[in-house]
Amino acid sequence: MADQQEKDQKLKKQQRSNATIAFACLSFFVCMIGAAYASVPLYRIFCQVTGYGGTTQRVEQYSDTILDRTIKVRFDANTANGLPWDFKPVQREVTVRIGETTMIKYEARNLFDQPTYGRASFNVAPGRAGAYFNKVECFCFTDTTLKPGEDMEMPVVFFVDPEIVNDPDLKDVKTITLSYTFFPIEKPKPVANAKAETSTNGS
């Protein structure tokens, strides 16, 4: 009888141990998923602050310093699969003085017989130069709608931060490439409908 009780106690202890391990594994898995989701916006913020990965800087003021040194800026355009747009820069490249504010334009045309919707992402090469490529005006990360056959011009206003000349890793850089890629998105919901859905979900 004593042996059976001892076996039962060992079995219960083993079951509790297994349950603890399973709970720990599940908690770790959930935490990893949460960290993965959180890392996306955190990584984006990190890139925006540091320019890491070719992420450009968004500013609201022009540079008050313009150098005699010039740099060439090339413009690249791409569309992801599923978006029937003809998207390209109006100018393929410009040569600007460092610190000089410049406006260039991209243009997009919907080749489909129905409205289509896109959103652009961007990067700069070489990647380290993104910290010094300042955009005052940009169409990136905003939803864009094009009607059938519609053409649209998309301006970009930028300047290259004069501090770039003090970066030893970029002292020999003569050309910077700004690249945009448009991705298809779902049809944006009307503001009134979105507010109504929010109110309904919150009630």
TrEMBL record:
A Pfam family hit: CtaG_Cox11
Gene Ontology terms, MF aspect: copper ion binding
Topology term for the membrane: Single-pass type II membrane protein
Keywords: Cell inner membrane, Cell membrane, Copper, Membrane, Signal-anchor, Transmembrane, Transmembrane helix
GO BP term (any one): respiratory chain complex IV assembly
All ranges on the Cytoplasmic side of the membrane: 1-16
Membrane-spanning ranges: 21-40
Location of this chain's protein in the cell: Cell inner membrane
One Gene Ontology cellular component: plasma membrane
Record flagged with keyword rRNA-binding: no
Main location: membrane
Entry-linked SUPFAM superfamilies: Ctag/Cox11
Signal peptide: none
Periplasmic side: 40-203
Stated family: Belongs to the COX11/CtaG family.
Task of the protein: Exerts its effect at some terminal stage of cytochrome c oxidase synthesis, probably by being involved in the insertion of the copper B into subunit I.
Descriptive protein name: Cytochrome c oxidase assembly protein CtaG
Organism encoding this protein: Brucella tritici
